[in-house]
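Quick check before the chapter quiz. The format below is the same one you will see on the exam, so make sure you can read both the input and the output lines.
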Amino acid sequence: NTISKNVTLLPNVFVDFTVENVCAGTPVQLVNLSNPNANFVWNFGDGGASTQYSPNHAYNQIGNKTILLTIVDSSTCDVTASVTHDVQVYAQPIADFTTQGDTFKFEAPVQFVNWSFAYQNLLWNFGDGQSSTDENPTHVYETIRSKTVCLEAFNDACADTICKDIYISFTGLVGV
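Here is the expected output.
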């Protein structure tokens, strides 16, 4: 005896999304790459959840979070599929620096002291076209006038910048 039956295979359900690292307190946009006609359940890894197609979510605690997206595709007899991706939540950097005053002599070294925190990298702009990535740089100015010095403190997801004005003055000649 033989029997023959037609079998209908359910199509594969595609589920995926992208997410970028983010700073704590800043909403991150989750970009859903799945079928938009499915039903979605997001678990953000911090107790938060959503059923939107491409939600955004703000994390309040720093660290690595695992996001789970589960879809139920009603066009495929309610086939369910899931995917996870990690997102790194960074602390918001705070940029700050000091100098020994706000007026300096022409061609004398100016010492900058970094007081930033929650950063991975620094970028100093000395206001004269020169820059540095040093922690506590010393810089010599070759022109006399006001300068705006900016410090950017940043990590893989966010940055903070502070700018302060200093003045480079001439050195008076004695007896002239």
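If your answer matched, good. The mean pLDDT is 91.
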